[in-house]
Amino acid sequence: MTSQTAAAPARFDAVLARARHWLRVASGVRPAYVLGALVAVQWIAVLALALRVRHNGWLYYAGGDQLWHYSGAYLMAHGHLPRALVGYGWSILLLPISAFAGPSLVSALPALVLFNTVVLLPVALLCIYGIAARIAGRLFGYFAAALWIALPYLGILAVQPGYHQKYTELTLPQSLGLSSVPDFPSTVGLIVAAYLALRAAEGASWHAAAGSGLAAGYAIAIKPSNALFLAAPAVLLLVVRRRQVLPFAAGLAPALLTLALWKYRGLGEIAAAPAEPTRLALGGGLLDRIHRPELNSWGHLHQVILGLREHFWLARVIEWLPLAGCTALLLRSLRGFLLVGTWFIAYLLVKGTYVLASIDDASFFRLLMPAFPAYVLLGAAVVLLVPRARARAAPVTEVPQRRLTLAVAAAAVVFAVVPLGVIAATPRLHDGGKRALQLGISLIPVSTTIDPHAVSAGDGVRISWRPQQTHGGSLFYHVFRGHQPDVGCGGRLNGAAEDCRLYADDVGATRSSTFVDHPPPGVWTYRVGVAANWLNDPTLGDVYVISPPVSPGS
Fold first, then answer.
1. 529 beta partners
2. Are residues 411 and 513 in the same domain?
3. CB 330 within 8 Å of CB 337
4. Smaller CB count within 10 Å for the chain: N or C?
């Protein structure tokens, strides 16, 4: 044996020894220091993205049902319960913001985006660390938390050039809390529920199980389709710690009961959506998506995989990570596999086969957003496949039982008692469309602050209105023309909130506060809608608030 051959293993052993030394040093650092640094890195990364991608003030791309949620918050803040075509949880959280920001979601965006990024993003990061630390210790927790920060941005390097804009401008802002869609806060709720469920499975007191139920229930209250997540804590607790099932169910029950009351008072029946044509447009209910073959298809999941391979040059790695992660957790941590593996698989099988979940328009990533934390944890778990790797939970600091009880009680008041009281006590909206209207598939408030006027001028009609100001982004206006009356309200089942819709034509968009229309002969009424979009393009975007009707000479 030559001296060089003998020296190579020695140098390799020295490198391993130094690596073990620094790992011991890292594991001895107080978690608060490491996690504080990671939170700071996360904020810097989000700020860099926010400044880099195209946006209109605080308005970034949003492709969900955010207008329904915010309009519902505004109406409840002013004493009216709206139609309950979406969950109530996000509207309840936005209620204080809408009370001050006014009827337009654009005005509320600064507070909303700051709440998402300054409050909810760190909560998600800390809980990702907590889940991973309960699976395989502090170092694994730090690694998973760092991967949670880095993976969305690493995706930028993995996309093909033709998909770069859709990933960076359509997907990342929604995934990181820069937009107003409710999918992000509901995902954070699921992460909190998962962490507490894992603590409950370790034999912690009933507080963790009850808190997990509260968090999961509120995530379902925001997005009812998140009922899919319940498969994960159910499997975990039934297999590992059955006595925790009862406190988990007790924590979950208030949100489900409140959701049932919300649906009954808003729709007149306990249903995901009324039996109307709008049902399919709004996505239908969870059971519909599972059982109706035209909404779920195994063939569509194959199309999704092909789309990944077309638009991501690392598609094989993207597909391999959850498989390898599930294998690693199955070998090293049964609890981790039962929770994280079930979580990811449940969403992949249901949302991945949903025929409207498309890679081409990036809707797949928004619909699968609740499963992204599980994907990150499975990706991190690949390191546990290293031979002799061990999965030992990090030590935890015991909290006095009295503090835990107070914390659960406070959470129950905020996320269970208050929503139930608001929904039970708020009168249902019965005003013939004077305060809110459905335009297309969006519910939008009616605001008198626009103050439109219509005057006949030769063969045309000149409409003028008060310019609207907001710090959320640049605005423009749409002018609608219809016959009088231009509103139609459907029947009310069991005294439900009114379903009033605007029947009018969009006759033009403008950035000024005046518009001249040349209508055909007849008696017409006009409304002015305030609109905006992330590109500040008058040919695109949603109407956020609309004026009362006005007629020439009125």
1. 478, 546
2. no
3. yes
4. N
Q: Using CB atoms within 10 A of its CB, is residue 459 exposed (0-12), middle (13-18) or buried (19+)?
A: exposed
Tokens of 98: 């809408």
Query: For residue 68, what are its two tokens?
Result: 């329904």
Tokens linked to 441: 């598939």
pLDDT tens, 165-181? 999 999 999 999 999 99
Q: Is 223 found in the same domain as 246?
A: yes
Domain that holds residue 533: 436-546
Cβ distance 318 to 373 under 8 Å? no
Write out pLDDT tens, residues 539-548. Answer: 888 899 999 9
Taking the CB of residue 203, how many other CB atoms lie within 10 A of it? 11
At 46-57, the pLDDT tens digits run 999 999 999 999
User: Is 529 in contact with 502 (CB distance < 8 Å)?
Assistant: no
409: Cα separation from own chain's centroid? 25
121 lies in a domain?
Answer: no
C-alpha 450/C-alpha 464 separation (Å) is 9
> How far is the C-alpha of 25 from the C-alpha of 73, rounded, in Å?
49
Phi, psi for 501 (deg, rounded to 5): -125, 145
Element (H, E) at 516: strand 514-517
Return the structure tokens found at 74. 């505004």
The residues pairing with 481 across neighbouring beta strands, listed in sequence order, are: 505, 526
Q: Kindly report whether the peptide bond that precedes residue 233 is cis, defined as omega within 30 degrees of 0.
A: no
Please identify which residue in the block is written with the tokens 């009088």.
484
pLDDT > 90 fraction of the chain, expressed in percent and rounded: 71
Tell me the C-alpha distance between 90 and 74, whole Å. 12
Q: Are 285 and 272 in contact (CB under 8 A)?
A: yes
3-state secondary structure of 79: coil
Distance CA 54, CA 164 (A): 13
Domain count, the chain: 2
**294 DSSP assignment:** T
Do 446 and 540 fall into the same domain?
A: yes
476-483 and 514-517 strand pairing: unpaired
Q: Which DSSP string do the residues of 426-455 spell out, in sequence order? A: SPB--STTSSEEEETTEEEEB-GGG--EEE
* Same domain, yes or no: 198 and 262: yes
Nearest Cα to 84, choosing from 288, 275, 259?
Answer: 259
